[in-house]
TrEMBL record:
Chief place of localization: cytoplasm
E.C. no: 2.3.1.254
Name the record gives this protein: N-alpha-acetyltransferase 20
Keyword Oxidoreductase: no
Domain N-acetyltransferase: 2-152
Cellular localization per UniProt: Cytoplasm; Nucleus
Amino acid sequence: MSTLRPFTVDDLFKFNNVNLDPLTETYGLSFYMQYLAHWPEFFQVAESPSGEIMGYIMGKAEGHGENWHGHVTALTVSPDYRRLGLAARLMNFLEEVSEKKRAYFVDLFVRVSNKVAINMYEQLGYIVYRTVLEYYSGDPDEDAYDMRKALSIDVKRKSVVPLTHPVRPEDVD
């Protein structure tokens, strides 16, 4: 059993156990504070009955016109709480917020080597929109998939027509 609730500043002192996963991108405190200040409605935590952080999602809204979208910056669930559907619940939450913001789609970047996450996102309705070459600065040999899911405003699903060629990080808008 878990509760989804808004992420708070105090959670920055309690979420290290979740960030220890090698596939989780960890940022400086100022980065988390920026998201909390600018997009608090996109920042949620899954909490156990004992108050332990089980996972969290951090995102934002960005773009213009038909490129207006919700973006998943970070989604992670502690290894102790995986396979319980928490990641899907957190993704569903961010998609609902994006719908309320009248976004055309939700996107995220995932390591090409992270097959478990890619499979989960595909089960949630995401497609590989494009490959971003050498996306991860700490690992220049690792590419990313830019995965997308169209939302209800994108009736013609134009936002999820895959690109046929890879792009470089500087070409990502």
